[in-house]
Specification:
By secondary structure, the chain is an alpha+beta fold. Helix content is 35%, strand content 25%. Strand 2 and strand 3 form a beta hairpin.
């Protein structure tokens, strides 16, 4: 999975992981991921308040937690080669909104 892209993660892998995942559904929150990068950047919404179609491309108003980072660092986070705590401490991951919700991302990311 080392050659995975953000498009693949948000387009296929994450939706499959969230489908029927009660732990993720129990978080009951709206996340926005703002990922910068020339080829693989973009903005995605992950709406864990819904039972289906939780991942959509683009931003949705009213996010409980917004995660901002480079697409390269997001892929590293996803594949386990970058720890979330280290990314945050070194400014590679920025959180706007509820920090507690950001910590709950480990339930379904990576």
């Amino acid at each position: 999975m080392a050659d995975v892209t953000c498009q693949e993660i948000f387009g296929t892998i994450l939706p499959e992981r969230l489908n029927g995942n009660e732990k993720a559904r129990a978080i009951d929150s709206l996340y926005v991921f703002e990922l910068t990068g020339d080829d693989d950047g973009g903005t995605w919404t992950v709406d864990l308040r819904k039972d289906s179609d939780q991942v959509t491309e683009g931003e949705t108003e009213g996010a409980d937690c917004t995660i901002t980072m480079t697409s390269e660092n997001f892929v590293k986070l996803w594949t386990g080669s970058l720890a979330a705590s280290a990314a945050y401490m070194f400014g590679k991951l920025k959180v706007k909104g509820d920090m507690g919700l950001a910590l709950k991302l480990q339930t379904f990311i990576g």
